[in-house]
Write a structure and sequence with these properties.
- With 390 residues, the protein is an alpha/beta fold.
- The chain folds into 2 domains: 14-45 and 308-389, Aspartate Aminotransferase, domain 1 (Alpha-Beta Complex); 65-291, Aspartate Aminotransferase, domain 2 (3-Layer(aba) Sandwich), CATH 3.40.640.10.
- The protein is 46% helix and 15% strand.
- The protein has helices spanning 14-22, 47-59, 72-83, 88-91, 102-117, 134-140, 160-168, 187-194, 213-216, 218-225, 257-275, 281-291, 293-323, 332-335, 347-357, 377-389; strands at 29-30, 95-101, 123-128, 144-149, 151-152, 157-158, 175-180, 198-203, 231-235, 247-253, 340-342, 359-360, 366-368.
- The strands form 4 sheets. The protein has a 7-stranded mixed beta sheet with strand order 2-10-9-8-7-3-4. Strands 1-12 form a two-stranded parallel ribbon. It has a two-stranded antiparallel sheet with strand order 5-6.
- Helix 12 crosses helix 13.
- The longest helix has 31 residues, at 293-323.
- The structure holds pyridoxal-5'-phosphate and (2S)-2-hydroxy-3-(4-hydroxyphenyl)propanoic acid.
- (2S)-2-hydroxy-3-(4-hydroxyphenyl)propanoic acid is lined by residues 13-14, 33-34, 104, 131, 133.
- Keywords: Aminotransferase, Pyridoxal phosphate, Transferase.
- This is Aspartate aminotransferase.
- Pfam families: Aminotran_1_2.
- Homodimer.
Length: 390
């Protein structure tokens, strides 16, 4: 039956891990996948997660199905974390929230809901470049994906003028636009309002960028305070280290409780045929952490610890590249925030790094800063310096 099925290409991000695993050199480094690693390069289970799991085991809960939209204690706490406890639409019971299969699932629910119900168009504008999975997620949701300028390869920084121009040229009232929650400047709120675009935020790293969950939610809260009725995808993969537990939430800010109830009903109709209802365990862990002051406090400390380690790696790397007289300008490494850095390395340079130095990253030159530690960062800097010098 499948003789006409062509072999597809491997996933651009997960393929990097495959290549890394096959490499037997002891110096090898994997900077492909965006998963936190500790000082010793090991995966890290947060202390607050272990404590929450102990509490859950002691409580011996049943394994009954969750409702279609997930664990109510979790969705409530997730919305409060994102929008803030003093958020007007939240206090007004006008935010429709559902649990999701992590951030990816939240984006997919959002894509499907927009595809079915956004009245003006099926076009979504994504920043260029964006997370590699964004385009397939929204395309498979039935939306037409277009791009707006976002990252300037020359300055290795935000192309703010290009971004404004492209969004100003987007057809009025007919488009939705997507943005990374931690990099969306205030001025955009006005442009998006003026053009009547619909803002869709992806908050996959709340707390990871600055070390503070409320600072990282600034753009989301600012847009909401300006009256935008946003869509929001949340992931607890990175900030709670719950990757494989698949904990996330999708929410829509609506006008009032009556509209919210209608939106709630349609979200259920979107989700039910996709996967019926979400998994239980991770949502229980997250809601336990978010709901208990002692664990919440410990979580904040642990998120800050992860963020600070990444920030210190940024400084170390920038300084090392400069000290090695590496051609080019490297301040973007400390200017960028979050888990990743767009190094500006070219595709041939990333290929050389893999072949000669056993260092793996995505072909676009993106590195996961969390893969660096005091034992490998100097080897990495020297290898990059050599690759750039050619
Ligand atoms: N959005 C962005 C920008 C990401 O980088 C990621 C993961 O790397 C995700 C969403 C979704 O991740 P997950 O589905 O594991 O929550
Ligand atoms: O590193 C990244 O950008 C992510 C990581 O099911 C990832 O793509 C890997 C697997 C997965 C979701 C996210």
């Amino acid at each position: 039956a499948w003789s006409a099925v062509p072999a597809g290409p491997p996933d651009a991000i997960l393929g990097v891990t495959e290549a890394f695993k096959a490499d037997k050199d002891p110096r090898k480094i994997n900077l492909g996948v965006g998963a936190y690693r500790d000082e010793h390069g090991k995966p890290y289970v947060l202390g607050c997660v272990k404590k929450a799991e102990d509490i859950l085991v002691a409580a011996d809960p049943d394994k009954e199905y969750l409702p279609i939209t997930g664990l109510p204690a979790f969705t409530k706490a997730a919305a409060k974390l994102a929008y803030g406890e003093d958020s007007a639409p939240l206090l007004n019971n006008a935010v429709s929230v559902t649990q999701s299969i992590s951030g990816t699932g939240a984006l997919r629910i959002g894509g499907a809901f927009l595809g079915r119900w956004y009245p003006h168009s099926k076009t979504i504008y994504l920043p260029v470049p964006s997370w590699g999975n964004h385009t397939p997620i929204f395309r498979d949701s039935g939306l037409e994906v277009k791009g707006y300028r976002y990252f300037d390869k020359k300055t290795v920084g935000l192309d703010f003028e290009g971004m404004k121009e492209d969004l100003k040229n987007a057809p009025e009232n007919r488009s939705s636009s997507y943005m990374h929650a931690h990099t969306t400047p205030r001025e955009l709120s006005d442009i998006i309002k003026e053009k009547k675009l619909f803002p869709f935020f992806d908050m996959a790293y709340q707390g990871f960028a600055s070390g503070s969950t409320s600072d990282d939610a600034f753009a989301v809260r600012h847009f909401v305070s300006q009256g935008h009725r946003i869509a929001l995808a949340q992931s607890f993969a990175k900030n709670m280290g719950l990757y494989g537990e698949r904990v996330g939430a999708f929410s829509l800010v609506t006008t009032d409780p009556e509209e919210r109830a209608r939106v709630d009903s349609q979200l259920k109709i979107v989700i039910r045929p996709m996967y019926s209802n979400p998994p239980l365990h991770g949502a229980r862990i997250a809601s336990t952490i978010l709901g208990r002051p002692d664990l919440y406090h410990q979580w904040e400390t642990e998120v800050k610890h992860m963020a600070d380690r990444i920030i210190s790696m940024r400084h170390h790397l920038r300084d090392a590249l400069v000290l090695l007289d590496t051609p080019g300008e490297w301040d973007h490494i400390t200017r960028q925030i979050g888990m990743f850095s767009f190094t500006g390395l070219t595709q041939p340079q990333t290929k050389t790094l893999a072949e000669k130095a056993h260092i793996y990253m995505t072909a676009d030159g993106r590195i996961s800063m969390a893969g660096l530690n005091s034992a490998n960062i100097d080897y990495f800097a020297e290898s990059v310096s050599n690759a750039v010098k050619g």
